[in-house]
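Hi W.,

Here's what went into the run:
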Amino acid sequence: AQKVTQAQTEISVVEKEDVTLDCVYETRDTTYYLFWYKQPPSGELVFLIRRNSFDEQNEISGRYSWNFQKSTSSFNFTITASQVVDSAVYFCALSKNDYKLSFGAGTTVTVRA
Amino acid sequence: DTGVSQDPRHKITKRGQNVTFRCDPISEHNRLYWYRQTLGQGPEFLTYFQNEAQLEKSRLLSDRFSAERPKGSFSTLEIQRTEQGDSAMYLCASSARAITGELFFGEGSRLTVL
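Here's what came out:
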């Protein structure tokens, strides 16, 4: 069985602060994929990143960065210098293929001006 | 707008009624997915189509649920004899070949069963 745990239910920060979202996963598969999606108030899930289990290289995309650590089964996401537009629910997800994603419960990020 | 579109966006129905949701994927995408999201939770996988073939169904998809994708274009999700527990957001997504693994989601169809 696959399971994703996002222990932080809500995070509130002031604009320009950094915010890190934790994601811990469980799987027995040796090959798997990890994802992050953003769900703004409009409701449409927006893809942010996919990593496969063989690629532990950290990634940076603009103000977003991801830290994948297989040893601790974690795939954490950091938003640097947060902005009000970053306010959304962020979901971490796990899949052994590319379509059946198991999502965590999500972390609601509120960035205050 | 060339994204995934879903219709209706909101549906309120009485228990026992049938409802149908429609999803129009991005035109060049051959893969289509249905997920369900309840309040405060992440989406849960329901089913997956590659072209017109339904390749996988979740155990969440009881006998009252049926999904189709005739001709490999739009898809419908029908719920018969709705129950209050069916109240949720029904999300449709589509993708092309799995290069980046990106699923493109629609804005969802919210179902409220009274």
